[in-house]
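Re: the request from the purification team.
They wanted to know what the chain is likely to look like in 3D before they choose a buffer screen. I agreed to run a prediction and write the result into the notebook, where they can find it.
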Amino acid sequence: MHFEWNAKKAALNYRKHDVTLEEASSALRDVLSATTHDPDHSENEERYVTFGISSQGRLLAVAHTESGDRIRIISARIGYKYREENL
């Protein structure tokens, strides 16, 4: 699995959500993570949200796309905050 992301979006994500996309990649490696399709944001490409525990021990919600063995991380935030904002 290879992770990639846009450096400018990564900096913005850290300022906005206090989560680095490097930490987000560790949540995607969590063997107990759960992934769901994100139809609300899949107009131009198939997007997914994965909930997993990061290397820092935090529950994260990670938005991403997949293409072969490449995963492009779009954004990440604390998992419970994602739930509060999207319910």
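For the purification team: Residues 2-86 form a domain with the Nuclear Transport Factor 2; Chain: A, fold (CATH 3.10.450.530).
Please add any questions underneath this entry.
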